[in-house]
Write a sequence for this structure.
């Protein structure tokens, strides 16, 4: 059978701090005017949207590069556990 559900768990204080640090580092590196990271937790079904990353900068290239980097860093560094 295929995937029925995915459960994402986290420790809220640890997760909030990790996401804040990623956003702050990206804002400093690319001189962003805004960063938003939303990562869902709990039980999710196939095809559910799990993460949103939005970046704003005076120049489009900086915003796009920061967004791509944040997505990669979320997969590698964010403290979420999958079941």
């Amino acid at each position: 059978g295929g995937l029925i559900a995915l459960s994402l768990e986290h420790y809220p204080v640890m997760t909030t701090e990790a996401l804040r640090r990623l956003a702050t580092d990206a804002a400093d590196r690319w001189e962003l005017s805004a960063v938003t990271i939303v990562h869902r937790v709990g039980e999710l079904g196939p095809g559910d949207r799990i993460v949103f990353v939005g970046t704003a900068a005076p120049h489009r290239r900086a915003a796009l590069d920061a967004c791509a980097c944040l997505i990669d860093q979320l997969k590698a560094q964010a403290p979420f556990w999958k079941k």
